[in-house]
Amino acid sequence: MHIPYLDIYLGQALARDVRVKVLLINPGGAAMSMLAFRAGPAWGRQTLEERLAINLGLLDRRLAQGDGLEVRLVDYLPPYTLYAYDPGLDDGSMELRLGSVGGRHELRPTFRLIRQRDGEWFDYFYEQFTTVWNAAEPYRHGQAPDIPTA
Fold first, then answer.
1. Residue 147 has pLDDT above 60, yes or no
2. Would residue 12 count as lying in a domain?
3. Lowest CB count within 10 Å: 14, 119, 125, 145, which one?
4. Treating both helix axes as pointing N-terminal to C-terminal, what angle do 45-63 and 30-39 enclose, rounded to 10 degrees?
5. Residue 56 φ/ψ, nearest 5 degrees
6. pTM above 0.70, yes or no
7. What is the pLDDT of residues 48-68, one digit of tens each?
8. What whole-number distance in Å separates Cα of residue 115 and Cα of residue 117?
9. Do the beta carbons of residue 96 and residue 119 sit within 8 Å?
10. Closest CA to 136 of 38, 31, 11, 16
11. Do residues 102 and 40 touch, judged by C-beta distance below 8 A?
12. Residue 145 lies inside a defined structural domain of this protein
């Protein structure tokens, strides 16, 4: 759901040769069922799959522009959304938004970790991301997403 809002910033970052990793759930997997459950009855699985297809389309367009962007898909729905900024550097930071069930999106608890201040927790979440990233399947430019049809 976040890629359309971040697309312009993603383009700017890639133009500055910033490396960006995006990890999304696999459209056809069990994680999509869990997402539909979490989203509640106002959202249907088909709507969520369509939104994910839009996200993948935007990312696919960015992948066509060259290096710097890596996208992977995984059949796992984490309990949070994570944004990391320079996580491998001493001044790295990250924001985490906890998941909710059927709740209002804007009320999700959000917290910020800074490597220098929150070293142990920062390292924990960075390691968690890296573990899932390494288990995920690379998404390549032009790859048709596996989105089931009704």
1. no
2. yes
3. 119
4. 120
5. -65, -35
6. yes
7. 888 888 888 889 888 888 789
8. 6
9. no
10. 31
11. yes
12. no
